[in-house]
Amino acid sequence: MVVNIWGTRGSLPMPDIFAVRHGGNTSCYEILTKSKQRIVIDAGTGIRALGDQLQTDGKPVECSILLTHTHWDHIQGFPFFAPIYQKGNKITIYYPPNQIRSIKEPLRYF
Questions:
Q1: Could you tell me which of 24, 69, 21, 61 has the C-alpha nearest to residue 43?
Q2: For residue range 28-43, what is the model confidence (pLDDT) as tens digits?
Q3: How far is residue 17's CA from residue 93's CA, in Å, rounded to a whole number?
Protein backbone atom coordinates (compact mmCIF):
# COMPACT_ATOMS: atom_id res chain seq x y z
CA MET A 1 0.00 0.00 0.00
CA VAL A 2 1.18 3.51 -0.83
CA VAL A 3 -0.19 6.63 0.87
CA ASN A 4 0.28 10.07 -0.66
CA ILE A 5 -0.66 13.21 1.21
CA TRP A 6 -2.00 15.93 -1.09
CA GLY A 7 -3.29 18.25 1.62
CA THR A 8 -3.22 18.51 5.40
CA ARG A 9 -4.49 21.97 6.25
CA GLY A 10 -7.64 22.72 8.20
CA SER A 11 -10.21 25.38 7.35
CA LEU A 12 -8.18 27.45 4.87
CA PRO A 13 -5.49 26.62 2.32
CA MET A 14 -2.19 28.47 2.84
CA PRO A 15 -0.39 28.81 -0.48
CA ASP A 16 2.62 30.73 0.77
CA ILE A 17 6.19 30.28 1.98
CA PHE A 18 5.09 29.60 5.57
CA ALA A 19 3.28 26.43 4.45
CA VAL A 20 6.13 24.84 2.49
CA ARG A 21 7.19 22.42 5.22
CA HIS A 22 3.76 20.85 5.79
CA GLY A 23 1.95 21.78 2.58
CA GLY A 24 -0.65 24.43 1.97
CA ASN A 25 -3.64 22.46 0.65
CA THR A 26 -6.67 21.35 2.63
CA SER A 27 -7.43 17.70 3.39
CA CYS A 28 -6.79 15.13 0.67
CA TYR A 29 -5.11 11.73 1.02
CA GLU A 30 -4.57 9.10 -1.66
CA ILE A 31 -4.24 5.40 -0.93
CA LEU A 32 -3.06 3.06 -3.67
CA THR A 33 -3.60 -0.54 -2.66
CA LYS A 34 -1.44 -3.49 -3.64
CA SER A 35 -4.09 -4.40 -6.23
CA LYS A 36 -3.82 -0.84 -7.67
CA GLN A 37 -7.19 0.31 -6.34
CA ARG A 38 -7.08 4.06 -5.72
CA ILE A 39 -8.95 5.48 -2.71
CA VAL A 40 -9.03 9.22 -2.13
CA ILE A 41 -9.97 10.45 1.33
CA ASP A 42 -11.56 13.91 1.25
CA ALA A 43 -11.66 16.43 -1.57
CA GLY A 44 -9.94 19.47 -0.11
CA THR A 45 -7.83 21.71 -2.34
CA GLY A 46 -5.14 19.02 -2.59
CA ILE A 47 -7.39 17.00 -4.91
CA ARG A 48 -6.69 19.42 -7.77
CA ALA A 49 -3.02 18.44 -8.03
CA LEU A 50 -3.93 14.77 -7.64
CA GLY A 51 -6.39 15.01 -10.53
CA ASP A 52 -3.80 16.72 -12.72
CA GLN A 53 -1.29 13.95 -12.01
CA LEU A 54 -3.82 11.17 -12.65
CA GLN A 55 -4.47 12.51 -16.15
CA THR A 56 -0.83 12.69 -17.27
CA ASP A 57 -0.70 9.20 -18.78
CA GLY A 58 -3.89 9.60 -20.84
CA LYS A 59 -5.50 6.48 -19.37
CA PRO A 60 -9.01 6.50 -17.90
CA VAL A 61 -9.05 7.37 -14.21
CA GLU A 62 -10.78 5.05 -11.77
CA CYS A 63 -10.99 5.88 -8.09
CA SER A 64 -13.21 6.02 -5.05
CA ILE A 65 -13.52 9.26 -3.10
CA LEU A 66 -14.44 8.88 0.55
CA LEU A 67 -15.74 12.11 2.07
CA THR A 68 -15.36 11.98 5.84
CA HIS A 69 -17.83 14.86 6.19
CA THR A 70 -18.97 17.89 4.22
CA HIS A 71 -17.21 20.76 5.96
CA TRP A 72 -15.95 23.21 3.36
CA ASP A 73 -12.25 22.33 3.82
CA HIS A 74 -13.02 18.69 2.95
CA ILE A 75 -14.95 19.37 -0.28
CA GLN A 76 -13.73 22.72 -1.63
CA GLY A 77 -11.34 21.15 -4.14
CA PHE A 78 -13.96 18.88 -5.71
CA PRO A 79 -14.94 21.18 -8.62
CA PHE A 80 -11.23 21.43 -9.57
CA PHE A 81 -10.73 17.65 -9.76
CA ALA A 82 -10.41 17.46 -13.56
CA PRO A 83 -11.14 13.69 -13.90
CA ILE A 84 -14.82 14.27 -12.99
CA TYR A 85 -15.27 16.16 -16.27
CA GLN A 86 -13.70 13.56 -18.57
CA LYS A 87 -15.76 10.85 -20.25
CA GLY A 88 -14.56 7.33 -19.64
CA ASN A 89 -13.42 7.94 -16.07
CA LYS A 90 -15.08 6.11 -13.21
CA ILE A 91 -15.29 8.12 -10.01
CA THR A 92 -17.35 6.72 -7.13
CA ILE A 93 -18.15 8.99 -4.19
CA TYR A 94 -18.88 7.68 -0.71
CA TYR A 95 -20.02 9.76 2.24
CA PRO A 96 -21.31 9.08 5.75
CA PRO A 97 -24.94 7.94 5.73
CA ASN A 98 -25.62 9.85 8.92
CA GLN A 99 -25.25 13.24 7.23
CA ILE A 100 -28.16 15.55 8.02
CA ARG A 101 -28.43 16.52 4.39
CA SER A 102 -27.85 14.76 1.10
CA ILE A 103 -24.37 14.96 -0.42
CA LYS A 104 -25.99 16.68 -3.39
CA GLU A 105 -26.79 19.77 -1.32
CA PRO A 106 -23.24 20.88 -0.50
CA LEU A 107 -21.89 19.84 -3.92
CA ARG A 108 -24.65 21.38 -6.06
CA TYR A 109 -23.21 24.88 -5.72
CA PHE A 110 -20.16 23.94 -7.78
A1: 69
A2: 999 999 999 999 999 9
A3: 33
Domains of the chain, earliest start first = 2-107 (3.60.15.10)
Averages of pLDDT over each 10 residues, the chain, 110 residues: 90 68 84 97 96 94 94 92 96 80 63
Which residues fall within 8 angstroms of residue 91, CB to CB, at 6 or more apart?
61, 62, 63, 64, 65, 81, 83, 84
Q: Supply the pTM of this predicted model.
A: 0.85
Q: Are 44 and 71 within 8 A, CB to CB?
A: no
Q: What is the three-class DSSP state of 43? A: coil
Q: What does 44-100 look like in DSSP terms, one character per residue?
A: STHHHHHHHHHTTT-SPPEEEEE-S---HHHHTTGGG-GGGGSTT-EEEEE--TT-S
